[in-house]
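Subject: sequence -> structure tokens, single chain

Hey, anyone have a minute? Need the predicted structure for the following. Not urgent.
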Amino acid sequence: MEPKFVCLDVGGTQIKAAAIEKNGHLSAPIQYFPARSEENAETILDHFTRIIRQVWEPEAVPEIRLAFPGPFDYEHGICLMQGLGKFDSLYGLDFGGELSRRLGVSREAIRFANDAAAFALGELHFGAGQNASRALFVCIGTGCGSAFAVTGSLVSAPEPGVPENGWIYNTSFLGGQIDDFISRRGLLALTKQYLGEALDGKTLAQRALNGEKSAAVCFHTFGEKLRDALTPFLDGFHPEVLCLGGQIVKSGSLFLEPLEMACLERGIRLAVTEDTSVRTLQGLTKV
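Reply:
Had a minute. Here:
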């Protein structure tokens, strides 16, 4: 029997989970769970164990895959988040070993991946990155996740135009770093500056669609910052396709025009992912 993957996309507030076949087909709809990321280690471990058992189909050979934001030692399954308000109690813990013991599966059956890398693998194998010779993946959420690929495989420095680990988030930008501006908190800060109140992308989009000019200007400014942040990588790496993911890209029609023009000028195909969660979970089957 071919293995069926139990895949979890882990965020600070929510965990998305599904059983997925090797061909990327979801056996059932994605299930959503609170992350409980501020709890103690024992509570978090029990919570993850229950989630996996709920999604796991008993007749299937278990292959468990988890996508986590960094910092995280993905090879050894050790959480390195500290002072971020999420999963602090797991710091330094052999998370993979603990899950193995609680679930009664081999440690080799459990693997971890960076969430942006999992998204990229999903696009490479099941989405817009298929058959691309060079591809750049950017996922905008609580931070700005990224990955680069050449001929179907993820790469990191010293490939020309690729920063260390393939991560652009800490690249210097506007006196800070990209993560400060191209992220949820970046948009909150921008709306605070332009509108006098911090708004998330969904609320800002609704205002813009209702004809509020200042909201539309705010979105356009965000789009210009996105273009400016990514342009050095478009010019340095020369991707054939740029794949964008994250909840905010659902409002892409309100802010993507500057980036669309930059890609058009360079002959780069811009692809916007309809469901980042599906792609990330699918990508975990390729870890």
